[in-house]
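QA checklist item 7 of 12: single-chain prediction sanity check.
[x] sequence parsed
[x] length recorded as 138
[x] structure emitted
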Amino acid sequence: MTLPWWGEPTAGEIVWCHFPDSISPRPKPRPALILVVFDDDAPQFTVRVAYGTSQRTTSLHRGEFAILRDHNLAAYSAAGLSFDTKFDLKQAIDLPYTTTWFSVPPSAPHGQCPKLGMLHPSLVRAVQAAFQAIKNNY
């Protein structure tokens, strides 16, 4: 495990994550939304991230919301995404904020850190609705 010099992550950031398949990091990174930052062991952080995918973005299920270029260009631009993406709050996991689980995206829009962009304020209600739909599971 390598400790990065990325600084403190922030809830609402969209990051480049090697979201796990069971217990190990996937080789292909994907967008993930930071939901919570745990700083108990600062300067080492743990983050709760929600899974992001560009597959079937117009078919939303309970606990999901999407960032779509044609529906909200400002939100899409702020997120730093290359494709329409949906996030699944049912698939959220706590991960150490290290190079094992996160990497710098190819274009490195925010320098040498995993950040792609931020959740636009116009999406707060969509995220709240997705969370409300699954809150009995938490």
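[x] summary fact logged: The radius of gyration is 14 Å.
[ ] second reviewer sign-off
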